[in-house]
Design goal:
Strand content: under 5%
Oligomer: single chain
Largest sheet: none
Helix content: over 70%
CATH superfamily: TspO/MBR protein
CATH architecture: Up-down Bundle
Number of strands: 0
Mean pLDDT: 93
Length: 159
């Protein structure tokens, strides 16, 4: 799928929108990261705190590019399902930070991550044949949220 010059604006809007929403959610939960989160028993595999904003900025760009591609794709039998899975995983993604950092619901946030893992895995599976770029773009995101699931599980288990 070739990008026309007029479509760069819509791509920029997708990326900007996801980055703005993630920044707002991050700002709302930042105080709990610096207080509550630092007191928790965390896995030795937990990356240093500076890794998270870098990783999530890159991942939100990939997620936005995937969504933008999905909404530009010609209809096929599984496209509506893939779009619904995309929206669902995005809503779960956005709900995770408040659930975990603001409400301290480590078990509920863990369930949210597991459902997100499955949703993203299904997006990868169902998009592979017709929109392989989405499938490939979502692989790093799946790897990161699987790792996040482990980290969340560790916190839920040992705190």
């Amino acid at each position: 799928m070739k990008i026309k010059n007029t479509e760069y604006l819509s791509l920029a809007l997708w990326i900007s929108g996801l980055l703005v929403i993630s920044s707002v959610l991050g700002a709302l939960t930042r105080s709990n990261v610096d207080t509550w989160y630092t007191t928790l028993n965390r896995s030795v595999l937990t990356p240093p705190s500076y890794v998270f904003p870098i990783a999530w900025t890159l991942l939100y760009i990939v997620i936005a590019l995937s969504g933008w591609t999905l909404w530009r794709t010609q209809s096929f039998s599984k496209l509506i399902l893939i779009k619904r899975l995309y929206v669902m995983q995005l809503l779960l993604n956005w709900s995770w930070s408040p659930l975990f950092f603001y409400y301290h619901l480590t078990g509920v946030s863990l369930v949210s991550l597991v459902v997100m893992d499955v949703s993203v895995g299904m997006i990868i599976y169902f998009s592979y044949a017709k929109i392989r770029s989405v499938s490939i773009l979502m692989l790093p995101y799946l790897a990161w949220i699987l790792f996040a699931t482990y980290l969340n599980f560790y916190i839920w288990q040992y705190n």
